[in-house]
Amino acid sequence: MPELPEVESARSVIERAALGRRIVEVDDSDTYVCRPHRPGEIRSALTGRLLVAAHRRGKTLWCDTGDNDTGDNGAGDAPVLGLHLGMSGKIVIAGADGSEVDGGDYWEGRRVKGDYRWSRFALTFDDGSRLMLVDPRRLGRIGLDPEIDRLGPDAATVTPAAFRAAVATGTVAVKARLLDQHAIAGIGNLLADEILWRARINPARPVDELTPSEIDRLLRATRRSVAAALAHGGVHTLTVIPFRRPGARCPRDHAPMSRGKVGGRTTWWCSAEQPVPAK
DNA sequence: AACAATGTTCAGTC
DNA sequence: GGACTGAACATTGT
Description:
single chain; 279 residues; N-terminal domain of MutM-like DNA repair proteins; 2 domains; 6 helices; elongated
């Protein structure tokens, strides 16, 4: 589910429904999701504190914590809670009575409201409300003090210079580079297909063979795709995503959609508009 | 029933 | 070091 737009939705859920209350209980018992922390480590660090801010870079979320009594507002050595939604994670806030207060507007998908069977991590606040990571596949990750510096610039705000620098090194396939979170942060498998389709560039093209004008198209397509997904409710609302299926035809020119594997992920592209260049 | 799935990391190879 | 592959994680939907 989550790529940059969905993670931004999760960030906003935390911001509007979980800041400013005291943490009275922490369930960090899932040793896989909370790795490499030992059970109780995250609980010890967070119990008694407040979430004071929710941030995002790429697909990584983190919350600053503070303490009303000491006036510590998340500066200095205050513990920072890192959250990653993995492939199937979702941030959900439940009220004191267990009813779902906020699960975000994006990717409601198949999940039924109030279904917390797959809660893998939870904070309980002093008013009885809870913040949960609901994650059936358990590929999400929770930890203290995440290393956000290792991520590339956020795809929603990357500058043209930084984008060109990130794309134009090495020889990897352009889609693999778009998916590289250390190069540019936030683009996932679906967003990458949409961006390359909009830019009319074959996903397998080596980055060192892209012309300056192609890199410009790629940048414009990235900005527009990310902005559209943020504005319209997630990556599923993008144009070419519904046509990533057998037998589909390109919504622009009706040529057959092709399928392959690039960067280790299933990749769809327009057979006519995104040709593999003849060598 | 087999297969793929919006992600990341690690081990192994060339 | 860079690029590539496969495995691992656990469950669901087609």
